[in-house]
Amino acid sequence: MITSxxxxxxxxxxxxxxxxxxxxxxxxxASVRDVAAKTPWQLLFFAFGIDxxxxxxxxxxLIRFLASxxxxxxxxxxxxxxxxxxxxxxxxxxxxxxx
Length: 99
What we know:
This protein has helices at 16-38, 41-60, 62-69, 81-96. The protein has a domain at 15-60. The longest helix is centred in the first third of the chain and has 23 residues, at 16-38. The chain is mainly α. The model has no long low-confidence stretch (mean pLDDT 76). It contains 4 helices and no strands. The radius of gyration is 30 Å and the shape is elongated.
């Protein structure tokens, strides 16, 4: 008959690889506890909620619809890269004398 002591050897008698595995698991568990204690849970719940909402909108096709309806923005000269560069240059010239 096999006793339970043959299945659970003492830590001193464990092979080096198994002992190293136990040490690594202990470190990981301690790290996870530390990170979980410092995590801003409200932010995680918010991010999860946004993910659920965006996934739902994507499944209904609303995101694709909005993208097709707002495609005209690419042709609008107000939102072109040249307009952005001009706005940056004018702001830079205004601020140059004040710095």
